[in-house]
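REVIEWER CHECKLIST
Item 1: Sequence provided? yes
Item 2: Single chain? yes
Item 3: Sequence as submitted:
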Amino acid sequence: MAADFDEPVFDEEFVRSARFTEPSARERARPPSRRERRRARRTARRGGGRSAFRRRHREPSHRMAVLQVIGGVLVLLAISFALWWWNSAPRDEKPVRPVGPTITHSPPSAPTTPSAPAPVTPTAPVTKAPPSAIPPV
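Item 4: Structure as written out by the authors:
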């Protein structure tokens, strides 16, 4: 159930149990005991502890990040150039002459089906027109 606005979110018992004490200045100033030093060495040898975790999984430096960005850009440029090269026209050593339209002279094709002979029309002799029928120029 949600707390009302007039009720405190954390009661006194919760605050008392969550309270912790910091070591005093005297406790911080004294050197670690033999047992604590041995425990620290053992965890360091085993590869455990926070210090080893921080060393292995730390964030990359600024220089490394810049190099990664430059490398990514170079890879993208190489891929785009390769795709452009692949899709462009083929390159031959000597250029090909352009092909123009060609004219073919072939005999007329024979009819595929036999046709009836053309009707014969009587040809009249060509006669000259009388000189009076020609208009003057």
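Item 5: Key structural point noted by reviewer: The CA atoms of residues 17 and 137 lie 135 Å apart.
Item 6: Recommendation: ____
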